[in-house]
From TrEMBL:
HAMAP family for this protein: MEMO1 (MF_00055)
UniProt xrefs under CDD domains: MEMO_like
Similarity comment: family membership: Belongs to the MEMO1 family.
Entry-linked InterPro entries: MEMO1_fam
Protein name: MEMO1 family
Recorded superkingdom: Eukaryota
Amino acid sequence: MNDYTPEYRMTTRSASHAGSWYSSRPSKLSSELAEWLAEVPKSIDGKDLPVPGARVIIAPHAGYSYSGPAAAWAYASLDLSKAKRIFLLGPSHALYLPGCALSKHSKYATPLGDLVVDMETTKELKATGKFEEMSSNTDETEHSLEMHIPYIYMMLSRNFSSPSEYPPLVPILVGSTKEAAEKLYGEILAPYLADPTSVFIISSDFCHWGLRFDYTHYISEPGGEITSLAKRSRPPTQPTIHESIGILDKHAMDAIEGGQHKEFLNELKRTENTICGRHPIGVVMAAMEVIKRTSTEDVDPANGRFKFVRYERSSDCEDVEDSSVSYASAYAIL
């Protein structure tokens, strides 16, 4: 179906990963989210949380037992004081997609309550002719969007008096976009990103390291040569594997903080870092560049650039047989 008819809008995406990736019990889920948020310091680098004007965040999307505490740092930084709509961009894990796709559902369910989809904005984006449409199966199979919905609901419940006032959601699934496509979608989304009432949430884990991810790259020092460890390689110690992973991720985070889309892509090409949300990150970085290029006002150089506030890994790899996934949280002021 190519049009958003009233009947078409009356559907709800189920919380398909509740009960496995996170708790399906509202009381337990609410308690866990609140606990992780409470563990975040009240200020970061001298800035009280939430950071004024921090309308864009990067946060992970693994099972909450792994990534929930790290994601809390991004959400605690997020400024929702002017929010009227929330864009959620996540990578496609199961479906090959050269561009971006939109949800056809009117709501996204969570054990805490439902979030309403912004159908007007979705229709505007669909009218560009550049967005595909997710099937219900694709939508509910993909976890990169869903894992943020409970956190979003929790944060909205703290900032608005009732669910009827919650800003609607604009879910966007981002595929394996090339540089030109990321620039194209950046151009399309830039006007929405420039709107001070828009919030953008980017879903991304960082390095997926190990034989099971087909990524065993190793770097001995920042800026050093990158090699690939074989199954029978002796475990390196100077640095250890997990320290090397940290260096690889630091290169990527530095490139993202640098604010230049092309440099981020160049860094990914050099290290081949398996950052699953690299494409949604690239799209938003491209959109930020459009805003800077077209702005007629003096803009603080620090605005429109990410600041990472948290980094951790699911485990510390010592041997080639080990594996881990990295989680990083960041915010950007606009």
